Amino acid sequence: MPDANTPPSGMPPRRLSPLSLKVNFAWTFLGNALVAVCQLLLMAILLREAGDATTGQYILALAISAPVFMFAGLDLRTLQATDSNGEVRFVEYLSLRLISGGIALALVPAIAIVWGYRADTLAVITGVGLGRFFLLISDTFNGLMQQSERMDRVAHSIVLKGILSTLILGATFLITDSLVAAVFAEAVARLLVLALYDFPLGCRLAHEQGTESISLASLRTVKAPRLKKLTLRSLPLAFKVMLVSLDTHVTRYFVTGMASLSAVGVFGPIASGAGSASMVGKALNQSVSAKLGRLATSGKPRELLQFVRRIQLLYLMLGVVGVGLTMLAGGPLLALVRPDLLAYQTVLTLVVVSVALDLQNGIVDMSLVAARRIAPLAPACGISVATSALGCWLLIPSFGLTGAAMAMIVGRVMRLATLNVALAFEPQCSKAATTTTGTVVSSRKAA
């Protein structure tokens, strides 16, 4: 089917105009919803066909690689999307991602070797790390699409990656009965989407924005001092997103250490499946990121705060609905995957509560980034990780997987409280900064 923006043959390509907030949200929601379905399908396949220990192996690989690649990503996507003044060139974002991603790609298997995992687990971890590297580079191009307010193209990209990854990983495992072969096949699928969709479209958008072409030659023009400045700016965000990832996976570490790979093979898919519901919040947050950036730079912090509070109210309503539906239908859905999973309905419900809290955390987090109030983010996540870890240590011995889900809730409550305090002071901080700037300007004029 031809693209709506593709002109008749012989004419120059039409510029991709920004879409409205409603259209962007609709596309992002649809794309993230389809990706969530793919994740649920993949977890169901592993639970039914791979067994708890093999599934636990895959969950462990995700848990080890995720924090490393989240840190390597430096949360540049958020900086890109809210960079309304075009302070940083796209090739600078891309260069930094290639460097940091390459380091992460080497670091992930090194961590597995240090921890002493056996050869097959090491191979799975390496394959998952390779797939995450391609996702990291692809995400940089998605950030360019998001900055151009073309979330339809972002949706196309993530849906292609989601569907191909699920089909290829699942099919390869069913055919070969090898998780190692499956994760490397998944990495190849992600590389194909990057090469055949993300890169060509990114080149077009960069050209439309008046920047140089994306090539090896353009990458060589990037100056080290610029990369250093961008790295220093993004490091607080990098620590923040790494801690967010640790907060997501810390319960997996404790379940693995205090129970077994089989136990995390049950808890991981349940937590990941429920966590896929957070795609709703991710869709809305990505759709409003450009508006958050404009509100943050417009000198109207009160309007920014009011806008964020409205979205928080929406997330509260969605969370209540989600928890209610889980209490009613969660058990039958688990039993549909595997009858013995019915015993974990309480675990699923508690995890959904933690997901509802994550929705709140996400929008407050992004609003603070848009306002460039980055300092509170990493400490808030650190408090959450520490609280979750303490909760796991205290609760898992007595309550098992239910205790792990309870620990997730406690950590997210602590993070939400900390972030909301920081957001509440944002108008005062902005007002103080404006007053100080005005005083300096007045003094200069008087001089």
Short note summarizing the structure:
This protein is mainly α and 447 residues long.
So how many helices? 15
> How many domain regions?
1
> H/E order of the elements?
HHHHHHHHHHHHHHH
Which structural category do the helix and sheet elements fall into?
Answer: mainly alpha
Task: Tell me the overall shape.
Answer: globular
Rg from alpha-carbon coordinates: 22 Å
Strands, total number: 0
* Terminal CA distance: 66 Å
Low-confidence stretches: 1-13, 428-447
Helix content: over 70%
**What percent of residues are in strands?**
under 5%
Largest sheet: none
Mean pLDDT: 80
Protein described:
- The protein has helices at residues 21-73, 76-81, 90-114, 119-147, 151-176, 179-208, 216-220, 224-258, 261-275, 279-297, 301-337, 345-370, 377-399, 401-424, 426-446.
- It has 15 helices and no strands.
- Residues 1-13 and 428-447 have low confidence and may be disordered.
- With 447 residues, it is mainly α.
- The protein is globular.
- α1 (21-73) packs across α5, α9 (261-275) packs across α12 (345-370) and α10 (279-297) runs parallel beside α12 (345-370).
- It has one domain (21-433).
Main attributes?
single chain; 447 residues; mainly alpha; 0% strand; disordered N terminus; disordered C terminus
